[in-house]
Design brief:
Two copies of one chain form a homodimer. The first copy, chain A, has eleven helices and six strands. Chain A is α/β, with parallel strands linked by helices.
Chain lengths: 208, 208
């Protein structure tokens, strides 16, 4: 069987195939890049119906990334999916505390999820940073609480937790109340590749 | 807003919500666990229509995992999503060569993907192991070639590459010609969380 083996060609052809799914949406060229990369990462054009990008999200993210802002991930899979070499070129780095022993201990003691405890532990380090949540609705609920109580002030929330328990609700709350710009997908779908794809799309559009 | 913060409760409730999506399929209790965990990881019940499990896949995997078999991943995100502590309890470990400098050099020289070169580099280490491909169709095509040419003999292929260029075709070929038992999802969807969820489901069913 013949198949394309050149990575650049694979990606270019993939983007060509995805483009027609987006023509019926009224998207900026930058939003097209975010939508395309999410659909590329999931193989699922239905995401075009689900993605919500706050009007200020891309400009805020572009400025922050160029200034070397850090990215705070709820789980290691999100961190692993982010192009960290590219991020380092801007001066930023990824952070994740899900495997931190203190966080695990606190989560156990309080009967909360580790990703929720991890967001608390980041504390004011989150200020000016980008939060990327690909797994845990509880992490997104917690970040929204920390913002509401003026404890932290990130510049952007990429909030795409996945699943059937709290994910849709946490993302509805994000859209309804967040004073911080966001990228999200409504409903149960989401996940680490969606979060990482969003971060990567925001970085890659700065190269052009 | 009230929400569940206990990880055990979140997972149990999630599985309860997923169960009704599976009643119309004729699945073994073990297959239900694989289906459920994939849907849990993706937030997408449509996977129930797409998952294909070879009749021998679960028994072969159970035996191999209990014997401490290793798992070979195409990308780091798959490895990161696998419960490696649980795998280590059985005596197995995860392997991934996508970031290996020799693999990168060979891929560049031959004009192929790094994940394809990585599968070649594993060579006979793959024998008796479980291959988990969550990203790259080219890696799956390459593994099928290596098996066809009697170079390697893994015990199971979890082949769920994602995307619009080769993913569906590689998975069709897996179902059509693989002499090795497999778990796959037909079509463009797939991804690292699907691969990792499959591995984790296979491990978790051994605890009960």
């Amino acid at each position: 069987m013949q198949f394309i083996t050149d990575p650049g060609q694979i990606e270019a052809r993939s983007m060509e195939i995805i483009a027609p799914y987006l023509t019926k949406f009224d998207l900026s060229p930058q939003a097209v890049k975010v939508f395309s990369r999410i659909i590329h990462a999931s193989g699922d054009p239905d995401y075009a119906n689900l993605i919500r990008i706050h009007p200020d999200a891309i400009s805020v993210a572009s400025k922050a990334l160029k200034s070397g802002c850090n990215i705070f991930c709820d789980v290691e899979m999100v961190r692993t999916g982010i192009n960290r070499r590219r991020l380092a070129e801007f001066g930023g780095q990824t952070n994740c505390l899900i495997a931190d022993p203190e966080v695990a201990e606190e989560a156990k003691r309080l009967g909360i999820t580790r990703s929720m405890a991890a967001m608390r532990h980041f504390g004011t380090a989150l200020n000016g940073g980008i939060i990327a949540i690909g797994n845990a609705p509880t992490a997104l609920f917690e970040v929204l609480r920390l913002i509401r109580e003026n404890v932290v002030s990130p510049c952007l929330i990429i909030g795409v937790p996945v699943g059937f328990v709290g994910a849709a609700e946490s993302k509805e709350l994000l859209v309804a109340e967040s004073p911080v710009p966001y990228i999200t997908v409504v409903g149960n779908k989401g996940g680490s590749p969606i979060a990482a794809a969003s971060v990567n799309a925001l970085m890659y559009m700065l190269d052009k």
